[in-house]
Amino acid sequence: MKKFIIAFIAAYIFIFFWGWLLNGVVLKDVYAQTPNLWRPQSEMMSLFHWIIIGQALVVFAFVMIYASGFAGGGVAAGIKLGVLLEIGAIGMRLGFYAVQPFPGKLVL
Amino acid sequence: MNWKKFFIAFFAAFVFLFMFGFIWYGTLMQGAHHEVPTLLRPEADFKSYFGWLILGHLVMAFFFTMLCVRFVPGGGAGANATLGILVGLVYAGPHLISFAVQPLTTKIVCGWIIGAVIQFTVAGAIIGLIYKPGERTT
Predict the structure, then answer these.
(1) Measured distance between the N- and C-terminal CA atoms of chain A, rounded to whole angstroms
(2) Whole-complex ipTM
(3) What helix, strand, coil percent values describe chain B, rounded to 5?
(4) Chain B residues near residue A78 by CB distance under 8 angstroms
């Protein structure tokens, strides 16, 4: 349980900062091209807790899959699990690209 | 790995994921989606992007099948459904994030989350029923 919590916190910190770097910095200009798809900044800030809960849910389920022994053990197993889940998530994003008018650059 | 069984499981998972998506998101949630028309492509536009929807489902089905086959060596519908619940939760998290950044309604985000968990749980059970470890040939 102790290791689970440590792994959860470490993975959460990484996901949070990666999300901020990718979406808040690198892709900022791409998001700005489609303002009609996004909430205004002030509204987003008032709903910021949902970003934290959403990321926590992703990390919790990910660590649960790893800790349940599905992936085996070790760094390589964690990476393999991450790669398979992320490629599956790319499939989900392609589905969203088909139904929502996101710019292709954002999906890429 | 028994590739023949793998591809049958992958195809079955793809058919289920696609049909469930059509019924759940495209039919049952159609009214909820119409509440946010600016967030969705117009019907004609959507048709020209339909190939992306199919490709997305193929990618999801392929890698979810791979995940089940690789990570549930014991096989079985129950264990794969458990993995499916967890994978559904991994993919449900981004829907909560979307709710914070996009003007989605609560009804839509709840529908997407419940849909993702059901979709991957059942898909996992289907894969577990088709790809049985005793039939492995390596």
Answers:
(1) 37
(2) 0.88
(3) 85, 0, 15
(4) none
At residue B74, the pLDDT reads 82
A57 → closest Cβ in B53, B83, B96: B96
Which residue of A70, A87, A100, A102 is the best one to mutate when testing the B interface, meaning the one whose CB has the most B CBs within 10 A? A70
Instruction: Give the CB-side neighbour count of residue B91, counting CA atoms within 13 A.
Output: 28
Q: How confident is the model at residue B132 (pLDDT cuts 50, 70, 90)?
A: confident
Residue B65: which of B137, B15, B116 has the closest Cα? B15
C-beta atoms of B101 and A85 within 8 A: no
What percent of chain A stands above pLDDT 70?
A: 97
CA pair distance A102, A33, nearest whole angstrom: 10
DSSP state of B42: -
Q: Retrieve residue A60's tokens.
A: 């919790």
Contact B102, A40 (CB under 8 A): no
Helices (H) and strands (E) in chain B, counts: 6, 0
What are the residue ranges spanned by the domains of chain A?
Answer: 2-107
| Chain B residue at shortest CA distance from A97 | B52
Q: Using a CB–CB cutoff of 8 Å, tell me whether B41 touches chain A.
A: yes
